[in-house]
Design goal:
The chain is mostly helical. Helices cover 61% and strands 5% of the residues. A five-stranded parallel β-sheet has the order 2-3-4-1-5, with helices on both faces. Helix 9 (215-229) crosses helix 10 (242-252). The longest helix has 27 residues, at 98-124.
């Protein structure tokens, strides 16, 4: 399988962005500089930056380090953690002269002072309420008490004036020689001198996982760069989803009235001088990526390196028209072409669907392939042969049409692995009484049926046996499969509030089909787990279902599983609004008939609400 983390091998055609990033790092006229590498969660930001930093480290006098603010969150202040990590890296990579030792000693002391202030704030409340860090030495216990009682009374519980006096005196003892503002200036001066004295020509700091952090940590990290460290020969590279950074800034200043600008965007543009945006993979790029991953496992290391080098040469000859085919490989390496023949077919089969359904996301693609390989391994232990192309085709259903996947699983278990309804679906011969009729007009399902190989004559029992884990709801692992953006959408939809729901439905347009489908499933499971269906949760469920046509048949299948007795009158307008907005009246007819028979009280309401205006 493949490690679910960044790589130092370029399978994503990042060479042009690696070169650009390398040029920005090496250009002395741009120093100090800040670079933003922006992209969706799992888009390859960390891989791109690490490949660039690997090249940068080859240049003498360059020191590179990676700071992961998410690891320190909850344990240490982001500012002091970042500054301390940078000083540690400089000390580790350099032989310090006496002057450098003096500089670094002073810098460590400055960091310690900031930590002390943070601890003081922890015990006495927010000192910023009293006028800012610069006025800390002139504070009195009475002023702290007055401000804290007024603005944060809970912080004083269990404390008396003697406790406050002790903490404030200890802080003043450290700060009685200078104001914090002066100390910041001294830090900047000492930091620049340290870089010069240690002969560090370039200090490259990669800020990773910033978009996983809380808004407070995000802002603290950016402020540390701006106030303390943006000096000398430093390059800061921030890899993040810029929407999360903008949101953190916007949230901090959302109480400013009359705001006519996107303050998050404006702030980020001032902090980040050179933005590089990673585009989503097209289906051709996804095909190349899948091939590289599969080739890595099909071939020995020397064979793999040989074929990668050959592909790079061919791409450079005509990049825009390059196409990876069996014939291309066979012309130069016929013996290797036979070894990777099936992988080429699997990549063609998967690339278009995964590029669209996963928004060209490499991390989700890798997870899909890891699941496929795990099932192949398990089948080997049971001495059952599975065709990788058949398994891949079935797994596409599992990811993007889970309700159809479960339905076919039920049918194949009752028909010796060869369900007749699936044969009719593939041949487009379903009638109105068929159990799979809901998916008959689904465009995604129609394209899936056309994918090779056809499944109508395949015994599917082995394939579904090793997919049993997907037929069971797994609450504990659900959130781990989602990007931070998708997880936020899910939590807002669960909250049942209208404001959160509207924001979540808007944000849902930015997540991929796989994540949207997974959230829809989870919402439905939550909705039907209660004795009565919650109207607000139903609104969240149908609101999400309305965001893309790939979800329509999933919603119809879910609704068809509900007994009419569960549908009450105040739910009818909500459901009918979804049916009309998505133009699913014909597909809904059988569900409407079933519900009316189960619950005659809603028959008239259904008819009235479904009438065309």
């Amino acid at each position: 399988m493949w490690k679910d983390s960044e790589t130092e091998l370029d399978y994503l055609d990042f060479d042009h962005m690696i070169s650009l990033l390398q040029e920005l790092i090496s250009d002395e006229s741009l120093l100090p500089s800040s670079i933003g590498v922006y992209g969706d969660w799992g888009s390859g930001k960390s891989s791109l930056i690490r490949m660039s930093m690997k090249k940068a480290e080859e240049v003498e006098g360059t020191v590179c380090l990676i700071f992961n603010g998410w690891l320190f969150e909850g344990y240490e202040d982001a500012k002091t953690a970042l500054m301390g990590n940078i000083l540690d890296a400089i000390q580790e990579h350099s032989t310090l002269s006496d002057k450098a030792k003096k500089c670094i000693s002073g810098l460590y002391k400055s960091v310690d002072k900031l930590k002390l202030i943070k601890n003081g704030i922890k015990y006495t409340g927010d000192f910023l309420l009293t006028g800012g860090l610069g006025t800390i030495t002139s504070m009195t216990i009475q002023s702290i008490l007055a401000n804290t009682k007024e603005r944060a009374p809970d912080l004083l519980k269990g404390m008396n004036e003697s406790d406050l006096t002790s903490v404030v005196d200890s802080i003043k003892g450290e700060l009685n020689n200078k104001e914090i503002r002066e100390d910041i200036k001294a830090f900047q001066k000492n930091f620049a001198e340290l870089l010069a004295e240690t002969k560090i020509n370039r200090l490259v700091v990669f800020i990773d996982e910033l978009d996983r952090c809380s808004p407070e940590t995000i802002l603290e990290t950016l402020e540390a760069i701006r106030l303390f460290l943006f000096t000398g020969n430093t390059v800061f590279i921030i890899g993040a989803d810029e929407r999360h950074i903008s949101y953190a800034v916007q949230k901090k200043f959302d109480e400013i009235e009359g705001q006519q600008i996107n303050i998050g965007k404006e702030y980020l543009e001032k902090i980040i001088q050179y933005p590089i945006r990673i585009p989503r993979l097209s289906h051709k790029e996804m095909e190349f990526y899948i091939n590289c991953l599969l080739f890595e496992k099909d071939l020995s290391k020397p064979e793999f390196e040989k074929i990668i080098q050959y592909m790079q040469i061919k791409k450079e000859e005509n990049f825009l028209e390059f196409e990876l085919t069996y014939e291309l490989i066979a012309n130069e390496h016929p013996e290797l072409a036979e070894k990777i023949k099936e992988s080429l077919l699997v990549a063609i089969q998967l690339s278009d669907v995964l590029a669209q359904g996963l928004n060209g996301n490499p991390r989700h693609c890798k997870r899909f392939l890891n699941s496929l390989v795990m099932r192949e391994k398990m089948s080997e232990y049971k001495h059952i042969d599975l065709d990788r192309k058949v398994l891949a085709k079935i797994m596409l259903l599992e990811y993007f049409k889970p309700s159809l996947f479960k339905k076919i699983a039920e049918l194949q278990s009752m028909e010796s692995g060869k369900p007749n309804d699936l044969r009719l679906l593939e041949m487009d011969e379903l009638d109105e009484e068929n159990g799979l009729k809901i998916w008959k007009d689904d465009k995604w399902v129609q394209r899936w049926c056309e994918l090779n190989p056809p499944l109508r004559d395949v015994d599917l029992r082995g394939y579904f046996y090793f997919s049993r884990d997907s037929l069971i709801e797994k609450n504990s692992t659900f959130s781990k499969k989602l990007s931070p953006k998708a997880h936020d959408v899910y939590q807002k939809l669960l909250s049942k509030g209208e404001v959160h729901r509207n924001k979540a439905i808007e944000d849902a347009l930015e997540i991929n089909d796989y994540e949207a489908t997974a959230i829809l499933q989870r919402l439905f499971a939550s909705m039907v787990s209660e004795s009565n269906i919650d109207k607000n949760l139903l609104k969240s469920y149908l609101g999400l279902g309305k965001t893309r046509n790939t979800l329509y048949s999933q919603v119809l299948n879910d609704l068809s599983s509900l007994p009419g007795q569960k549908i009450v009158l105040n739910m009818v307008p909500i459901i009918c609004s979804f049916i009309k907005d998505t133009k699913q009246e014909v597909s809904f007819e059988s569900i409407q008939k079933k519900w009316s028979q189960d619950n005659p009280k809603i028959e008239r309401a259904l008819e009235t609400n479904l009438k065309k205006e």
